[in-house]
Amino acid sequence: MNNKHFIKHFMEPVPVEDPLSEEGDLRFDAERQLLTNAAGELCFESGWYTNTRTSSKYIKGHRSRSNKYIPGRTRPGKTDRRKGK
User: Fold this and answer.
1) Cβ(50)–Cβ(79) under 8 Å?
2) d(Cα 35, Cα 49) in Å, to the nearest integer?
3) CA nearest to 27, candidates 17, 40, 14
4) Class of residue 35 by CB neighbours under 10 A (exposed 0-12, middle 13-18, buried 19+)
5) Model confidence at 83, in pLDDT bands (50, 70, 90)?
6) CA–CA distance, 71 with 58 (Å, rounded to integer)
7) CA 40 to CA 37: how far, in whole Å?
8) Domain spans of the chain, in order of start
9) What would the pLDDT profile of 1-50 be if each residue is shown by its tens digit?
10) Cα separation of 69 and 59, whole Å?
11) So what's the pLDDT on residue 24?
12) How do 42-45 and 49-54 pair as beta strands?
């Protein structure tokens, strides 16, 4: 039995474009829903991810639809990774 994952049997190598290249000839192919270069080959943009922190927020106390009082609370901040921020 082969230890290779099922999907890897169907995968093809795809060139990765340099993020600093000045070519700028990448196009979005609507049929395949992927980026392609001028020759029609599939390309993936590489780039840097940054860790972004969203600040915490205080949610004021209020009444619910059934007229119960819900006390105020602090929604904690979150950290996520975003590309190009």
Assistant:
1) no
2) 19
3) 40
4) middle
5) low
6) 11
7) 5
8) 12-47, 49-85
9) 567 777 777 777 766 666 555 556 777 777 777 777 777 777 766 666 77
10) 13
11) 62
12) unpaired
Q: What are 51's two structure tokens? A: 């860790």
DSSP for 14-73? --EE-TT-S----EEETTTTEEE-TTS-EEEE---EEEEEEPPEEEPPEE-TTS-EE--E
**For tokens 């949610």, what's the residue?**
59
* Contact residues for 16 (Cβ-Cβ < 8 A; gap 6+): 43, 44, 46
pTM of the model: 0.35
